[in-house]
Structures are given as C-alpha cells and as structure tokens.
Design goal:
eight-stranded antiparallel beta sheet; five-stranded antiparallel beta sheet; globular; alpha+beta
C-alpha cells in the first residue's frame, strides 16, 4: 500500500460531511453525485455498505461551483465552473451494472495543469478509506486503459474500469503527452490520471475531453484465476459493444501480396548465402547474423498457403527455403537448432541467445510446429524426417524441466542459463501450451497415444497462471488452440476454461484505442496486439501469427458452444487486423516517421517488407529494423479472407470469420460469424469490371431482403453485414 496523500485524506473527510447533489437510478445501479471544492464524485454503494468513488472532475483551484444540473434522454449532465474554465460531465447508466461518464474542459485562458490525482477511491460504510483490494490486471504501456479489481476484504464485488483513451487524443496532441501507462493500481489511490505537460498549455476556449470512462460492476468476487479470466472476456465484450470504434479502410491485398512476394524474391537484402544454400535474413540487409530456422519456416508456410490459394504448385522462394532446411539439423544433439550450424562462428554474443547451442525455450517448439504443419500437408519428406528426428529431443527437454520451461538453456547439457523472465516471475509460461500444440500435431500425424499423453501432462500446471500465462502473443494463441482441442477430445471443461484464460491474456495485451496524435495520425492502432507483456511496440510477425491463429481457433470451435464474448472479440480483432497491418509496410508511411537509426540492418522505404515495430504516436517506426520474417502478413490474410468462386471471374472478400460459405449453381450462401453488434464488410471483386449483375439478399427468417450496396468503386461492390447474419449472393452474366 502506498501512503495517503493530503488530498485523499481531505476527500474522505469532505465526503463524510456532504450530501449528494443528485442520485441517478436506473436498472440495478444507483449513483450518488457529490461535489466538494475540488472534485466531482460518482459514488456507488455496495450491498454491504462499502463505497466506490469515481472522480469525474478535479480542479486545482479549490473553487468549483455548480452551474447547471440537467437530465435529458436518460443522461445526466453536470456543469461546473471555476476561474480556470468550465467542466461538463455527462453520466449515463447504459444497462445492468454498466455506466459511462465523460468530462470535457474548456479553459478561459491558455492553461497548464500542475497535478492530476487518480480517479478511484474506496471507502467503508462510514467513509473511512479502504486500503485493501485485489488488482487482477491494469494498463501496461499503450495497451487498453483497463483496471480490473475486486474488493475482497470485506467480500464485496468487483470493478471492470475502461478508459476510452481515443477520446483524449486532442488533449494528448495539444500537450505533447501520451496515452501510455495512465492507469495505476497502488492502493488506496487507483485508476486513471490525465498526463501532465510542463510546458504545452491547453488553448483558451478550446474544449478537451479529460476522461471517458466505462465502468462495469460485479456483485461477486471471482473465485480463482480461471473465473477472473472468463469474467474479463465477458466484461470486455460488454463494454466493447458500446465503445465508439473507428471505421475500417479497404486495402488492395491482392496487389500488396504480389508486391511482397516479388520484393522478397528479388531484393538482395532479404537473402544470405551459406553452405551452398539461400536463406532469408531476419532483418533487411543483416548479413552478419547467421540464418535462423524459425525465420525460414515462419515465411515458408504462409507463402505456401498463398500459392495454394493461387493454384500455383511452387515458387523460387519455396524451393530455396526447402533446400536449406536440412542444414539446421545437428546429429550430435539429435535435433534441429536455432542457428545454422555452418555459420555459428559468426555469432557475436551481443545478446543472451546469440551463442552456439543456446536455446530460447519457445524457439525449439515453433519451428517443430511448422515442420509438423508441413508434414501434415503430405509429400514433405524432408520436413517429416527433421520433425521425427528431433521430437525425442524436444520430449527429453520437456521432461527434464518437468514441463516448466526456463527462458534460456544449453542444448547439449540442458543447464539453465536464465530461469526467469524477471525476478520472481518464472520462465516462459505459455511454452507448455506450445508444447501441447506440437504434441497434438504429432498425435494427429502418427496416431501414437504417447503424444496425446504428453500434451495433457504439459498443461496440468497452467490453472493458476491467469494473465501471467502470456509470454509471447503468438505462442499464447497457439496454446489456446491446443487447449481447445484437448477440450474437444476429452470433454473436460477445465481445458476450455484454460483456453479462455489464454485468450483473456491475449485480449489483455491489445490496444483498444487509436493513438491519433503525433506520428500516430498516419496509421490506425485500434485493436493492435503487443508481442510481449511489456513490449513498448507492436510487431508485424506476432500480429500476423496471432491473426492466423485466432482464425484457426474460430474454425476449430465451430462445432462447440463458445462464449459469445469470445466469438465477438475474435471476429472484431480479425477485422481490425486486416485494416491495420498494411501500415507495417514502410511504403504506407510518410518517410519522416521512419527511424533514421535502426538496431539491425537497414530500412528500404520503397520495399513491401514489413517494419518490425509501430510505436506510440510520438515515436518513429522501424527502430528495430525491417522484418523479413514478418513477410507472412499478406500471405496469411489473402487465403483466409478472399473466396474464389469456381468457374466464375469474380471473388468475394469478407473481413470476418464465417460459419458458412457454400456455392450452389449461381448462388452463394454466406453465414457471418462473430456475435453481438459486430459488423463486417463483404466485397464482390469483379475482375471483368462489368460482365455480371449481382444481388445480395439478407435472410430474415423466411424472408429475403434485397440489400443496397454501400459503395461501388471500379471493380469492387461493397456491403455491410451484421454479425451472425445470413445472406445469399446471386449473379448472372449480362
């Protein structure tokens, strides 16, 4: 617990003496509104008398005066005036247990704030400060403005608080401040505080949003980590449905894909040559670092998916990558290794993993999982041999570490080089899930039950991890898929709950706001996902793999009753990923926002190869480098969202997962996935440009309603469809 501030102590004293200026009652919520000299408070009183206060206004002048109190259209508006300006707070109880309050400020002169306190305090029934509670999760860096906590002493309930930081962009832009790390959880003063600028004042007579908060209350304290994570998903989805969301932008992914495969094949900075084979560099023009097996396979699989979609048997990129795979096998270890053995002498020891025979725990499983995917395709003898020759080593490692992996270990001795990600934090906690995913793939390929048994053993200790299960975004998503498969195979609910735990940790590491300030005005960031729990930027490679894995999760879950919240969040993530990820390409960004100092390799701003990193609006992109192994972005999206129509010269693009896409004669029956009030885009791409007449009908019971296109541009006809809707597309040639 942090020490009290004088302001907090005075607040408790003031509130105990005051009467509310108004009470708002709707659904099951009662909010009492209090005003003292410096703050406007919304007080929720729990059944046991405990009170939670939300500070909607704070003014340093200590002379707030009530100017107006209004009720209109189930919204209450409070206007407060001081010498510094006018505060207007709007309060609305949206539904059972959910309310929203937002505050604007219009200064009477150019104005600097000197201090901003946190906006949540908890009190006993007689207004003593309550200094204990359990924080489940809070905002880290640029992630969503979330604070989820329970009042468990005494047993009271929980609060899921969401600050809609998108609304504050004008304030961030004017004050040159950021939306990062604004939610705190040091008891007793918790919640949000506006960032303070020492020298960039708010402008006279300009109106700024200072807070836009959604609050969802829970009457029960969750019992365990699985309950916390499941509640998190449900609560987030409930708020998400009321959250203002940005429009999506249509991109020509077909052209982007062709540009990308051409640039990767022909640009010399994408390739190195070692031991008679061509290998992709991890970063553009980084010839010094030895080739890595993960890099080769992380690109090979999406390219092959893309070629399958195009109907092409092979490509020079595929041939080169396959030719070099065998050289990553070390017979003396009985496994594939990270670095190309013939080039290990080039390792510079500049990082912990840049040493021969040092393995990052997740890094062994990832290429083996991709080798298993190759093997499952059939006819991939080299991939199959590498997989089966390496799998006993992977199992030996798992058993040696008792299914709790460290961060780094020596491959020959299995000595642990780095046990924990941080002191007391444990190792890479999602690796048991990736190992389970690998084992299930082996079981599907071979039918040998020992692999199924290994998968179950691996995940037995995940139950108490909660949000801490997240180490790396793509691997946590693979873990979710493995656990979903175990649920389907065993019918044991604990596996489904563990799968939800992994998904909750994924959605806990996204940015559900758009940082439209500084350089951030040049790219969308809503629903971006961060690669690591403390990463200061989002990354192309992990974004693409999470997108593809969540698509696969949705397909895997089609025949089970999945939480509606999960269906909605996955569908919306996919939609916004398709909208966002083209901006990892330097070609999509103004040159002034590209970093002039690059950690690894160099940046070619004209190349359709993704930058590794997009950052907060005040920071330049590409500081890490241009990420060749992130090239799978477009190759992963096109086969999943573009539907070719057999024997016809048009295709259909849909930016949501589907429950059904079936062609019968000159009709296509489409069932849209997702849930809630989600919305997706359906586009007909007519390469003939005018040879067809199309009609799209929305099924409503037994009725069919002809839809009017939202837009027609050149060869693209666009419609919007609701989540869970069904439609019929018909066509005839002119």
């Amino acid at each position: 617990m942090e020490p009290y501030t004088a302001l907090t102590l005075q607040t408790a004293t003031d509130l105990a003496k005051l009467n509310p200026i108004e009470s708002i009652k709707n659904h099951n919520i009662v909010l009492d509104i209090y005003a003292n000299d410096n703050s406007l408070w919304l007080i929720k009183t729990w059944k046991n008398g405990i009170k939670t206060g939300f500070r909607a206004v704070y003014d340093e002048g200590n002379a707030l005066a009530l100017a107006k109190l209004d009720h209109k259209d189930d919204k209450t508006t409070v206007t407060l005036k001081t010498a510094a300006g006018t505060y207007i707070t709007s309060i609305k109880i949206i539904e059972d247990s959910l309310f929203r309050y937002s505050t604007t400020f219009t200064p009477t002169a150019d104005l600097l704030f000197a201090y901003s306190p946190k906006d949540i305090l908890n009190f006993t029934n007689d207004w003593k400060l309550l200094s204990t509670g359990k924080v489940h999760t809070q905002q880290v860096g640029n992630r969503s403005g979330i604070l989820y906590f329970s009042l468990n002493k005494p047993n009271t309930g929980g609060i899921f608080y969401f600050q809609n930081l998108t609304s504050l962009n004008a304030y961030f832009e004017q004050t040159k401040t950021s939306g990062a790390s604004l939610i705190g959880a040091e008891w007793p003063e918790i919640g949000f505080s506006i960032p303070i600028s020492p020298d960039q004042p708010l402008k006279k007579n300009q109106t700024y949003v200072l807070s836009d908060a959604f609050v969802l209350t829970e009457d029960q304290v969750p019992k365990n980590q699985l309950s916390i994570c499941k509640n998190y998903l449900v609560n987030l989805a409930a708020i998400y449905q009321h959250l203002p969301k940005p429009e999506t932008i249509s991109h020509d992914w077909l052209t982007i894909g062709e540009n990308g495969i051409k640039d990767m094949e022909l640009h010399p900075g994408c390739w190195s040559y070692q031991g008679g084979h061509h290998y992709l560099t991890a970063y553009l023009s980084d010839y010094a670092t030895p080739p890595e097996i993960m890099v080769q396979l992380a690109v090979l699989l999406p390219v092959m998916e893309y070629l399958d979609w195009k109907g092409e048997a092979s490509h020079p990129i595929v041939d080169r990558l396959k030719d070099g795979l065998e050289a990553f096998y070390k017979p003396e270890l009985g496994t594939i290794v990270r670095w190309l053995p013939d080039a290990e002498s080039n390792l510079d020891y500049s990082e912990e993993q840049k040493k021969p025979n040092v393995m990052d725990a997740w890094y062994l499983h990832h290429p083996l999982m991709n080798l298993a995917r190759l093997t499952a395709r059939g006819g991939e003898k080299i991939a199959s041999k590498l997989l089966m020759d390496s799998i006993e080593y992977a199992m030996k490692v798992a058993r040696t570490f008792n299914y709790q992996w460290p961060v780094f270990y020596e491959m020959d001795t299995l000595n642990i080089l780095k046990a924990e990600t941080a002191e007391g934090a444990g190792g890479e906690k999602d690796v048991p899930g990736t190992y389970a995913d690998l084992m299930l793939k082996l079981w599907e390929i071979t039918g040998e039950r020992k692999y199924f048994t290994e998968a179950k053993r691996s995940v037995e200790r995940l139950e108490d991890e909660g949000f801490d299960v997240f180490y790396q975004a793509n691997n946590t998503t693979f873990s979710a898929i493995a656990l979903l498969k175990l649920y389907k195979l065993t019918k044991k609910e604990k596996y489904l709950d563990l799968s939800y735990m992994c998904l909750a940790s994924i959605f806990n590491n996204v940015q559900l706001w758009d940082s439209n300030y500084g350089y951030g005005k040049n790219f969308p960031s809503f629903f971006a996902i961060f690669p690591l729990k403390d990463a200061p930027y989002t990354a192309a490679y992990e974004e693409q793999e999470v997108y593809a894995a969540l698509y696969n999760y949705y397909q895997e879950a089609k025949d089970i009753e999945l939480l509606p919240a999960v269906r909605m969040l996955i569908a919306e993530f996919m939609k916004y990923a398709i909208n966002r990820v083209p901006y990892y390409f330097a070609t999509m960004l103004p040159k002034e926002m590209l970093s002039t100092e690059v950690k690894t390799g160099e940046i070619d701003p004209n190349l359709w190869i993704a930058l590794e990193d997009l950052r907060d609006g005040w920071e330049q992109a590409g500081q890490v480098g241009q990420e060749v192994y992130g090239a799978g972005i477009s190759f992963g999206i096109i086969p999943r969202q573009y539907y070719k129509v057999k024997s016809e010269d048009f295709m259909v693009f849909i930016d949501y997962p589907l429950e059904r896409f079936t062609k019968r004669n000159n009709k296509i029956y489409v069932a849209i996935g997702g849930d809630g009030n989600g919305e997706c885009k359906l586009q007909i791409i007519d390469s003939t440009k005018n040879a067809y007449i199309f009609e799209l009908y929305l099924k409503e019971g037994r009725e069919q309603l002809l839809l009017t296109p939202d837009s027609k541009q050149k060869e693209i006809i666009s419609y919007k469809l609701k989540a869970k809707s069904e439609a019929i597309l018909t066509w005839k040639k002119k």
